[in-house]
Design goal:
Largest sheet of chain C: 3 strands, antiparallel
Subcellular location (chain D): Cell inner membrane; Cell membrane
Strand content of chain C: 5-15%
Number of strands of chain A: 14
CATH architecture of one domain in chain C: Orthogonal Bundle
GO biological process, one term (chain D): amino acid transport
Structural class of chain C: mainly alpha
Distance between the termini of chain A: 25 Å
Oligomer: heteropentamer
Strand order of the largest sheet of chain A: 10-9-11-8-12
Helix content of chain A: 25-40%
Keywords (chain D): Cell membrane, Membrane, Transmembrane, Transmembrane helix, Transport
Mean pLDDT of chain A: 89
Largest sheet of chain A: 5 strands, mixed
Chains: A alpha/beta, B alpha/beta, C mainly alpha, D mainly alpha
Low-confidence stretches of chain C: 1-9
Organism (chain D): Rhodovulum euryhalinum
Structural class of chain A: alpha/beta
Number of strands of chain C: 9
Pfam families (chain D): BPD_transp_1
Radius of gyration of chain C: 29 Å
Mean pLDDT of chain C: 86
Bound molecules: adenosine-5'-triphosphate, glutamine, magnesium ion
Radius of gyration of chain A: 20 Å
Chain lengths: 317, 263, 418, 433, 263
């Protein structure tokens, strides 16, 4: 089973994007950074107790699923949309959603367009091999307007073409649009159109048929989300472990009560390690893509359910 | 040196030399870059003369005869061939070239054309001779060099001696007034040398003006009416063959002859 | 003294399998074949097992399902409801398009550069050397992305053509627009069109186009006749009549007549909406790929051309010059016919390389066969094995066809030699 | 007719050529303005050079080396050279050049790849230069084991045990061919080492490591990246493809029909498909072809496919070398009683390989350039890395600087290699043969 | 034809012919594809014999001697060399080859090995002689062919005559019982022919069994004890040299001799 493999190997193999602003990219020291990357680190911390025990395997839109299917990676955290055919036909298990996204358009303000429906005849840049490509085709078909797709391999190239005016609009997951816009010389000259033409729940996935491993990843993600809900942060977690609170849910999460860890086949403090790796969900969000970063994404749908968002960790019980 | 031609009887009667100047070279100088390869060449050649040029390797023999049909450019002095001065004027050069035939050491036949095509190419494209006529002329000269039966073969299928004879025939097809030979036999096996020399002797007997760079001293003695000895880019001595070989004047000539005949 | 006995009768011993020349060959081959089949069986068995455990048995059925994605450049009609198979066909045609265009341009540039490299002009020869070395020693993929980046960054966007004092303007009296989305050139249109001819119900061929081809072909044939006649006259009289105007006329006049009859006119590109509309749009991805492949390959072709010309010894030129032939004639009658034999084989293998390298189209998003079948289709259906095998098969067939042409040419040329 | 005799008693001294044909003027006239057409070409060329330089130079020179992000770069350039100046942001190279060169290789271990590639170069020297002492050939023999060990690290016993396989093969050849004859010896020499490598070598290496632990820090191939990845793939592929190529070439030359068919089929197949499809096989399919559960990492898989790719080209190069050998050499070897393998080893291969060296070098250059394609399947070679670097918020938007740097790296490497192969070609041509 | 060896005194005393059969060829036939190149060859060669094979080009001389060490396969009849029949058995072939030395027209030295290595290669790898011993033997034979001082040079550095002598020494190092020569002097310049013929004469004087395809009639007269004339793949005539040259029986032989001696 994957869990045992990972443990005996002492390393977690994690598939990431070869480079996507805010979600995964190697920094100057060669350390991978980003929102997707952080999830892998959390899983590594939970399973192996060491957040740096991760091998990052950069994958492209094409190679990502094979890498996972062939066992080259244990978990794919590469802004991958949870779709029916990927889950059912390609035989993967999506363990949850770490970012609720949707496909949007960015256009230069000077174009004078305020709705995607006005894009009749426009040239649209799009990354190939993604769900966005299919969504786009559907959107224009449904609205019975024409467009010209400009397929592109990487987001960096898409951005280059868009900025030079080789395409009128650029479409991808709204998170990507925001990230891209943030690095423009003059971000204010571009608008993200109001239409979100698809649902893009991005989440980590594992191979079909290894439920134990899927549980580990699923509940690590849930632990991060729940931690935010209960106010457990990397700052106060040591304190909370040392002096368990009166909230049994928190105690169970932190392993000071019950033996949830053992049920997963992990040490009792698995969630503590995972949360300490980079912080709870909210902390990670703020650190890599939130308002304080150049990318500056608002929580939006990705707020806790208590705040009107969609994040809703099942109970730790 | 082969003296295979020695036992041939030479008919010198038709080898008269006319009074008309064929080539007039005056104070000609040539440099390769800074290297002074031909120095102060003065040479008058009359129609019907058979000149043999000899000299040590690198003395400029090839360069001299290549200047005569402007394969090389000279930088000073003048060369007048058949009344036409060689300048940068392309028309003059064309005229001279079509009146001067040249045979090279390595034959330089065109391997992609048959022997016949080799011979008719220039007449057709330069002289604008009808193809049929050109072919007839070609066959005539091929017969003269004794290989009419090879006409439809390719050069690669012929022996060296045969190839050189084709090369001679090819030049003759342009009906040149002057023939230049640059060591025509030095790339050949001994048996083949004879074939080629025989052909050249025959040409000489018909009164063709010839300038021939060669070290075949037997040929020089029998055929030439003048031998020119070059060294260091200069004409050091010229004389009739008998006098040249038996009584050389300059020390350099003596040295050279002792080496070449000493073999 | 050895006495001669009858030679021992051949009785089969096991040792003969190894030490008898007749059986040895057989033994080795049987062993090799066995090993080979074992290896093949092992690989196939593994594959089948792996696929079975993944629940993805080999199945080409996906080819007939709807592709659902759009392709921006299609030579035959296509929309996103067509099958993956048709999408692949669109890709294949795009591959062939860029390969043919590339081979043509590469030949022109390569021959030019190869000849210029031999130029007596020092500066020109140096520049050509720099060009050749620069292109040969940097990976072609880098050249492709370079070319794309240059196009995108240095040409104006369509929006720059808009407005009163637009920063960019169309060329040739508003007929050609060079933009960073590609080049827009006038398209031929016919007022009295003959319509289309459906072929196998799969795609349409314009009858106008066919008619033009036919007239052009006939014109060229007539021009050939005139040429043969000129040859004949030259053979007979030695004088070659000047016929270029006749030959030109015989090609052009009927063509012009046909065009007039069809009501030929140009459709000019025009800035409408977001883009130029009308005219032929050569996309930047196609142009970048085309230029990069051509110039990269041209560097190699230039070397072949230079080598070919150098291989024809100086002696050949001199001999021809000594016969009084003019430089132009020397080139066409003596040097080129010989150089061709040396040049053509490497030339064709460069065509092969160019065609294979066109698979790098995905780097600039040109939708060739690797981009459709080996890219989006593979990605959306998850049928890696089928797609990659099919892809290889297609390239293999193209390569073998090109090699066959090369072999045919080689044997033909060899016959002429001896 | 005038008197024909002439004797020169005083030799004409060498004179300087007329001024128009030498010196700078002569040179200009000769090389740049020898005809009106040439003059026009010269002017056009000068125009072209001016155009290129006037566009490129300011950009290259008016640049920033110190910024820590693209935005900062723009500010610095605007501050230094005035608003609206566009200049290069070389700062990204300063910050990332080590990454572009070494990928994720641990920075304290950079000496290892450097040493390894230096060693590989040294090992090549005695093969190429016959003048060097023959004893250096031991270095060449050791390099294939030492270089990978330096690159990947780990226990020293692994390469030792792998090398031992060759020793075992040789021993098997000796023993078995003495006992059971030549062909059996050859078969044994093939089978024994393979068995050893497959089943025993790893055990033995593990045992030895347990008894006598000695090793250096292991580095996973995932840490390989950048230019080092290109060189590693190229070097390993070429080294391995040499023996495979030899076997294929011999097979293709052989008159055994089935063997010939297999070899021709393989060679033509590999040469008929683009490398990118083979890389797809490496990244998508190769694991399917292996027994369920085997998993080797993507770089190894890529190396396998690139090796197969290089082998096919190598086979053709070597076939050319074999074809260039006169038949007499084979016959002389036969007449002396040398059997097939001995003749190949002692007579044919040494000569054929020597003839093939320029071809081998140019195959190497080709393969090396083609390693850039691995970026398409997500490996971080220099080109792949340039994308990852641009995925950092600071460097998003940097294009030319990265491409330019990578192109320069490749150019320097390939150009020197190609010059070197030309030198070899010249040397081989003049060498007595 | 060169008869440079004529003025050499030949010691025929040691050139006795034994009663033992060295090579027995019986009803041997060979085809190249459908072309019948050797027809019904019957030939017995005794130990110590010196056979010269001659005949027009294409008559199958080379093919015949190449059959003897199985460089070519024959299709019918038998060839027994030193008691070993040449069949498809590789072991027999190896045995025969190591007892039969062969010298080719174009020497076929191994250019990548020094002269000494050329000579020691086969002894070391085929005969399994220790290197030291092999080198001693090699030096011995190199002395015999009078070029011991060249031992450490490469073949490319030697003249043609020297190369051919090395080739002979190389064969001798295998201590063969029989030596085959295929036109060993025809690729050489006249001066060098003498060197090589001298070496061969010396060999003959030591009683080596030799079969030599050559047109050196001087050599044949002095050394051979039998001359074999072949034409169209058949042995047309064989006789002692004096009888063969002075009194040829067959018309073909006469024609051939008139051509070859008429030069
Ligand atoms: N293209 C050239 N460039 C520079 N130097 C040259 C060139 N061609 C010939 N030379 C030099 O000019 C000199 C004369 O050469 P030329 O070929 O005329 O000599 P030659 O008398 O014909 O000698 P040979 O008997 O060897 O043919 C030689 O020193 C030669 O090196
Ligand atoms: N490998 C071959 N395949 C087909 N025919 C061959 C082959 N080798 C030789 N022949 C033919 O066999 C005939 C005899 O050839 P062989 O070389 O034995 O003649 P030869 O007497 O040695 O002639 P030469 O004096 O020219 O060497 C010739 O007609 C030749 O064309
Ligand atoms: N841009 C991407 O690489 C991912 C796009 C999209 N979320 C997908 O899964 O296909
Ligand atoms: Mg000369
Ligand atoms: Mg022969």
């Amino acid at each position: 089973a994957t869990l045992d493999d990972v443990k005996s190997r002492g390393k977690l193999n994690c598939g990431t994007n070869t480079g996507l602003v805010g979600f995964a990219a190697p920094d100057a020291n060669g350390d991978w950074q980003g929102f997707d990357v952080a999830l892998c680190r959390a899983v590594a911390a939970a399973v192996l107790g060491d957040q740096s025990a991760v091998e990052f395997v950069p994958t492209t839109g094409k190679t990502r699923f094979t890498a996972l299917a062939s066992g080259e990676i244990d978990i794919l955290a590469r802004n991958t949309t949870w779709t029916f055919s990927r889950d059912v036909d390609l035989k993967f298990t999506f363990v949850g959603v770490n970012y609720y996204d949707g496909q949007g358009f960015i256009v230069p303000k000077s174009l004078g367009v305020s709705s995607a429906k006005e894009l009749d005849g426009a040239t649209v840049c799009i990354q190939t091999g993604t769900t966005t490509e299919l969504n786009l085709a559907d959107f224009f078909r449904v609205n019975n307007i024409s467009y010209e797709p400009v397929p592109i391999e990487t987001s960096a190239e898409a951005q280059q073409q868009y900025l030079a005016g080789a395409c009128d609009a650029y479409t991808t997951d709204a998170s990507g649009l925001a990230a891209t816009r943030a690095t423009f010389e003059d971000p204010t000259a571009h608008v993200i159109l109001p239409e979100i033409i698809s649902k893009e729940p991005l989440g980590p996935l594992v191979r079909h048929g290894d439920d134990d491993w899927a549980d580990v990843v699923r509940w690590t993600l849930n632990a991060l989300i729940a931690a935010e809900e209960y106010g457990v942060t990397s700052a106060n977690i040591d304190e909370l472990v040392a002096n368990p609170t009166s909230n049994p849910e928190i105690n169970r999460l932190l392993g000071t009560e019950g033996d949830l860890g053992a049920m997963l086949g992990l040490p009792a403090d698995w969630a503590v390690k995972a949360i300490k790796a980079g912080g709870n969900y909210g902390e990670l969000f703020e650190k890599y893509i939130g308002q304080s970063t150049p990318i500056g994404l608002a929580r939006g749908l990705n707020a806790q359910w208590t705040e009107g968002g969609l994040l809703y960790a099942p109970p730790f019980r | 040196m082969s003296d295979l031609a020695a036992n041939r009887e030479i008919d010198r009667s038709r080898m008269a030399v006319s009074e008309n100047v064929a080539i007039q070279i005056t104070n000609m100088n040539k440099w390769y870059g800074a290297f002074h390869v031909l120095r102060d060449i003065n040479l008058t050649i009359y129609e019907g003369e058979r000149i043999v040029v000899c000299g040590p390797s690198g003395s400029g023999k090839s360069t001299l005869i290549r200047c005569i049909n402007r394969l090389e450019e000279h930088q000073a002095g003048s060369i007048v061939v058949d009344g036409i001065e060689l300048t940068n004027d392309l028309k003059n050069i064309d005229k001279v070239r079509s009146e001067v035939g040249m045979v090279f050491q390595h034959f330089n036949l065109f391997p992609h054309l048959t022997i016949l095509e080799n011979c008719t190419l220039a007449p057709i494209w330069v002289r604008k001779v009808p193809k049929k006529e050109a072919e007839e002329t070609a066959m005539h000269f091929l017969e003269k060099v004794k290989i009419p039966e090879q006409a439809n073969k390719y050069p690669g299928q012929l022996s060296g001696g045969q190839q050189q004879r084709v090369a001679i025939a090819r030049s003759l097809c342009m009906k040149p007034k002057i023939m230049l030979f640059d060591e025509p036999t030095s790339a050949l096996d001994p048996e083949m040398i004879k074939e080629v020399l025989d052909t050249m002797i025959e040409l000489a007997q018909e009164g063709m003006t010839m300038i021939c760079v060669t070290h075949e001293m037997g040929f020089a003695r029998q055929v030439a009416n003048r031998v020119i000895f070059m060294d260091q880019g200069q004409i050091v001595e010229q004389n009739e063959p008998e006098a040249f070989f038996l009584n050389p004047q300059s020390d350099r000539t003596k040295l050279f002859l002792s080496q070449i005949l000493g073999h | 003294m050895t006495t001669l006995t009858d030679p021992p009768k051949d009785s089969f011993r096991l040792g003969m399998l190894i030490y008898d020349t007749r059986y040895r060959a057989l033994t080795i081959q049987v062993v090799a074949l066995f090993a080979f089949m074992l290896l093949a069986a092992w690989l196939i068995n593994n594959t089948v097992q792996n696929l079975a455990s993944l629940g993805k048995p080999i199945d080409f059925g996906f080819l007939s399902t709807a592709a659902q994605y759009d392709i921006n450049q299609t030579l035959i009609a296509y929309d996103n409801q067509d099958s993956h198979l048709r999408a692949s066909a669109v890709g294949l045609l795009n591959t062939l398009l860029v390969a043919v265009m590339g081979c043509a341009l590469a030949t022109v540039v390569g021959v030019l550069v190869g000849i210029l490299r031999l130029s007596r002009n020092w500066l020109v020869a140096r520049i050509m050397t720099v060009y050749v070395e620069l292109f040969r020693n940097v990976p072609v993929l880098l050249w492709i992305v370079f070319a794309m980046a240059i196009l995108i960054e240095s040409l104006p966007a369509p929006r720059d053509f808009r407005g009163e004092d637009a920063p960019a303007a169309m060329l040739f009296g508003d007929s050609v627009a060079l933009t960073n989305r590609g080049f827009y050139v006038p398209e031929p249109l016919f007022a009295r069109t003959l319509g289309d001819l459906p072929v196998f119900g799969a795609f349409d061929i314009s009858l106008d186009f066919l008619a033009i081809l036919a007239v052009l072909g006939a014109g060229l044939f007539a021009s050939g006749l005139i040429r043969t006649r000129a040859d004949r006259i030259q053979n007979a009289t030695g004088i070659r009549p000047t016929t270029w105007y006749l030959r030109l006329g015989v090609v052009l006049l009927p063509l012009i007549a046909l065009l007039v009859a069809l009501g030929f006119h140009l459709g000019y590109p025009e800035l409408r909406g977001f883009n130029f509309q009308g005219g032929i749009h050569m996309r930047n991805s196609l142009i970048a790929l085309w230029l990069a492949l051509s110039f990269y390959t041209a560097a190699f072709i230039a070397e072949a051309v230079r080598g070919g010309i150098l291989a024809i010894s100086k002696g050949q030129t001199e001999a021809a010059a000594a016969l009084g032939l003019r430089p132009g004639r020397i080139m066409s009658l003596v040097i080129l016919p010989q150089a061709m034999r040396v040049i053509i084989p490497p030339l064709i293998s460069q065509y092969l390389n160019l065609t294979k390298n066109s698979s790098l189209a995905i780097a600039v998003g040109y939708m060739d066969i690797t981009g459709t079948l080996g890219g989006i289709t593979m990605n959306q259906t998850g049928r890696e094995l089928e797609c990659v095998l099919l892809l290889m098969l297609i390239y293999l067939v193209i390569s073998l066809l090109i090699s066959a042409v090369m072999n045919w040419y080689n044997t033909r040329v060899k016959l002429v030699e001896r | 007719m005038a008197d024909l005799t002439f004797v020169r008693h005083e030799m004409v001294p060498e004179q300087a050529p007329p001024a128009t044909s030498v010196g700078p003027r002569g040179w200009l006239r000769e090389n740049l303005f020898s005809s009106p057409l040439n003059a026009i070409l010269t002017l056009l060329s000068l125009g072209l050079i001016w155009w290129v330089l006037s566009h490129a130079l300011p950009w290259i020179v008016l640049s920033s080396w110190t910024a820590s992000s693209l935005g900062e770069c723009r500010e610095q350039i605007a501050a230094a050279h005035g608003e609206g100046t566009t200049g290069a942001c070389w700062a990204v190279i300063r910050e990332r050049y080590l990454q572009l060169l070494f990928g994720f290789y641990p920075s304290d271990l950079y000496w290892r790849p450097l040493l390894a590639f230096g060693l590989a170069l040294l090992a090549l020297a005695p093969v190429l230069f016959t003048a060097l002492p023959r004893r250096l050939l031991w270095l060449s023999a050791a390099a294939p084991f030492v270089v990978p060990w330096l690159l990947w690290g780990g226990s020293v016993w692994v390469p030792v045990c792998v090398a031992l396989g060759f020793g075992l093969g040789l021993a098997a050849l000796r023993v078995v061919s003495a006992a059971a004859g030549g062909l059996a010896g050859v078969i044994a020499a093939g089978v024994v080492p393979v068995l050893w490598w497959l089943f025993l070598a790893w055990v033995a290496a593990g045992l030895l490591q347990a008894i006598l632990p000695f090793g250096i820090t292991p580095v996973e191939s995932r840490a390989f990246g950048g230019f080092m990845l290109s060189i590693t793939i190229g070097l390993v592929a070429i080294t391995l493809s040499l023996p495979i190529g030899i076997v294929l070439a011999l097979g293709r030359q052989s008159n055994l029909l089935i063997i010939k068919a297999i070899c021709v089929g393989f060679i033509e197949f590999i040469r008929g498909v683009p490398l990118i499809t083979l890389l797809f096989v490496a990244s998508l399919l190769l694991n399917y072809f292996m027994p369920p559960g085997t998993n080797f990492d993507i770089i190894l898989r890529v190396i396998i496919m690139v090796t197969l790719f290089a082998s096919a080209y190598m086979a053709e190069v070597i076939r050319g070398g074999l074809a260039a050998l006169p038949r007499g050499q084979y016959e002389a070897a036969d007449a002396l009683g040398l059997d097939y393998w001995k003749a190949q080893r002692l007579i044919v291969m040494p000569q054929a390989l020597k003839i093939s060296i320029p071809g081998i070098v140019s195959t190497f250059i080709g393969v090396f350039k083609d390693t850039t394609l691995v970026s398409i399947i997500g490996l971080l070679d220099p080109l792949g890395f340039s994308n990852s670097i641009r995925a950092n918020a600071e460097w998003n938007g940097v294009v030319w600087e990265l491409y330019g740097f990578i192109a320069a790296l490749f150019f320097v490497f390939c150009f020197s290699m190609s010059r070197y192969s030309m030198y070899l070609e010249r040397k081989l041509r003049t060498e007595n043969r």
